[in-house]
Each structure stands twice: as C-alpha cells, then as structure tokens.
Amino acid sequence: MNITIITVGKLKEKYLKLGIEEYTKRLSSYAKVDIVEVADEKAPENLSPKEEVLIKEKEGERILGKVRPDDYVIALAIQGEMPSSEKLANKLDQLATYGNSKIAFIIGGSLGLSEKVMDRADEAISFSKMTFPHQLMRLILVEQIYRAFRINRGEPYHK
Hints:
Elements: E1 2-8, H1 14-27, E2 32-38, H2 49-64, E3 72-81, H3 85-97, E4 102-107, H4 115-120, E5 123-125, H5 134-152
Parallel strand pairs: 1-2, 1-4, 3-4, 3-5
Helix pairs in contact: 1-5, 3-5
C-alpha cells in the first residue's frame, strides 16, 4: 500500500519531527509512506470571510497539484466522520482488498480545506470535535495509520 500524507506548511518543532520519523519508520514494514508539504499562505489575524476563502483556495490548488488521479483521498476535516481506530483499520483493509492501494490523506492549513479539496475527497474523517494544530495532526495521523496496520495484522498494540 502506498500512503501519501499531503499537508500544508513546514514542520518546525523537533519533537514532532522525531515522533513522525519514529512512526514512519515503524510503518515501513507495512506500507510506503510519503509526507508531502505544500506552502502555506500567510494568514493575518483579522481576515474577512472572503480573504479566508481566498487563502484556502490558494492552499487547495497546491494540495490538488499533489493528488494523483488514482488516489483514494481522505480529507481530515472537523465535519468528517469520527471513526474508531478499528473502523479506520477496517477501511484501510477494505481499500487494499478492493484495489485502492494508493491513499492520500490531506491535512489542511490553519483555516482548513477549500471546497475544491473537499469535493475531490472520497471521504472526510475527523479525529475529534476539538481543534488541533495541523502540525500535531501529522503525528496523530501517522500513529493511527500505524495502529490500523497493527490491528489488521492481529499484532498487539497499546490500547
């Protein structure tokens, strides 16, 4: 399985980089994982709704430029379905079983994802109703993907 995580902005925090590297290394026995960063737009504090849409559209174009036509796209969005770890594992297993071996997870910038990105997504998932920094979501996502593979292989993992 080929998994691409397309994310807005550069990761700066060393502790997050180390965590992501650790889980990416663990995942290498199960899948090929690539993390693709696209540039974020500068977003001053007091943006109008129109300016917010414009920023999301610019970031969205960059995101969509990294999505392959045959990718199964899963957008991380607060309005998405909140699956359990087991349900995410089952979804990845079903995708692999039915020939969708190229999966792209998309993490938007601080303002979220554009409508065009959401329209391209095959589904949207949410990890919580709470808001997390998009950099932290990378770590949470790679950990959950790793957990999903462990669950699917019947291998032990912390609950």
